[in-house]
Design a protein that fits this description.
- 21% of the residues lie in helices and 22% in strands.
- It has one domain: 2-Layer Sandwich (HIT family, subunit A).
- β1 and β2 form a beta hairpin.
- The protein is an alpha+beta fold.
- It contains 2 helices and 5 strands; from the N terminus they run αβββαββ.
- It comes from Rhodothermus marinus (strain ATCC 43812 / DSM 4252 / R-10) (Rhodothermus obamensis).
Length: 115
Amino acid sequence: MAEKTLFQRIMDGELPGDIVYEDEQCVVLRDINPQAPVHLLIIPRKPIPSLNEVTEEDAPLIGHLFVVARQMAEREGIARTGYRTVFNTGPDAQQSVYHLHLHLLGGRKFTWPPG
């Protein structure tokens, strides 16, 4: 059996995490190293390592993550001014936890291109 990811351990209550929302499909927590005034991680309960492993079967789950992102943006007061959603995939994109998670960032003006 594969070792649990950091996010699985937080969801299982084995490690602390600042959980701000949860439902049967995902958990949302505040990033411990925020890159913006609002920096939330929307994490599916299903342990998918990265976007590269997403299948057609996962399409409803991925859609749900974006619906939750919109709801969290409204809750955090950033929906009207703007926000960014990001999946980091692989080492060159700085993915540090191999459990798919959607970053929701806002509360400041962003530049383009990112990174």
